[in-house]
Every structure is written in structure tokens, then in C-alpha cells.
Amino acid sequence: MFDPERDDDRGARRFYFRLLAIVVISVAGCVAVYPSVSGFSAGLDGEKGCLAITDGWHADRGHMSAAEKAIESLNFATRPSPEQRVVIDRANAKFEWSQGPGACVAESRHRLIVSGLGLGGIALIGSGVAIARRSRRSLRRAPVEVAPA
Question: What are the boundaries of each domain within the chain?
């Protein structure tokens, strides 16, 4: 028996819609995570290779204070005092760290934040779509109350 109304399979349409939603969410997630997993160069001449997902978690030792920069720029003709030597050693340690392992920290943290914001945006949009679909479906299926006559 030929019945064109039964030829339309709604279950297949829902399956393909769900499959398309999974693909779209996966691609959006990959685009959001890309800044954290793509490498970049840092350092004085860009000689240090960095990866945000591994380098962004180090503790930042901060920048040199004005006093440390001033003492670093002084030309000591004589031997520095013990207090000056401590400040010089601290400034040298910060400088060496910022040009070595710490060269990647600032850019890596920025890339991690961008990826986090992207993933958060995807989660918000996905949640909003799911809530909107759920409420539309529940409104459509609401039973109609008949007023007593």
C-alpha cells in the first residue's frame, strides 16, 4: 500500500541532527583549545619554543623592582656592599629566570585564558540551546485543560 505520509522517517532526521550537533560542538571545542596547544616562540631572539598547555602553569616570579633595576644599571668600580650584592643576585636570578623558563609564562597564561573563555562560551551557548529546546518541547506537549461547562 502506498502511503506518502509514512515515507518521512522522523527518527532518522533526529539522528542526523544530533550527529551534526556533535560535530559542530567538537569543531568549536577544537577551535577554542587551539591557542593552548599550538606552539610559539619566546625569549630574546625567539629561540625558546613554548607550549601554553605545559608552560602556563609555572609560578611567575614577578618583574624587577625599580631599586633592583637601578642597582643593576650601576657600574661598580669597587666591590659592592653586602646589601647591594644581595639585591644584585636577586635581580640576576629574576633576569635569568625571565629569559629562561619564565619567558613563556606570560604568553602561555594569556593563551590559556583565551581557550578557557572560548570553552566557557561554547558551554553557555550549548546550555542555552538545550534549555530553549527543552522548554519549547515541554510547551508543545503540555496538555490542554478543558474548562468545565
Answer: 10-135
From the list 104, 94, 97, 42, the residue with the least C-alpha distance to 72 is: 94
Looking at residue 138, the DSSP 8-state letter turns out to be H
CA dist list (Å): 108 to 31, 33, 69, 103: 17, 13, 25, 9
Question: Could you give the CA distance from residue 116 to residue 94 in angstroms, rounded to a whole number?
Answer: 29
Residue among 20, 117, 101, 120 nearest 61 (CA):
101
In which band, very low, low, confident or very high, does the pLDDT at 125 lie, cut at 50, 70 and 90? very high
* Cα gap 109→121, rounded to integer Å: 18
Residue at 132: amino acid letter: A
Helices assigned H by DSSP within 38-81: 52-55, 66-73
**Count of C-beta atoms within a 10 Å radius of residue 130:** 11
DSSP structural state of residue 51: E
Residue 142 pLDDT greater than 60, yes or no? no
**pTM given for the model:** 0.67
One-letter amino acid for residue 18 of the chain: R
Left, alpha or beta for 51 (phi > 0: left; psi -120 to 50: alpha)? beta
- The secondary structure element, H or E, covering residue 79 is none
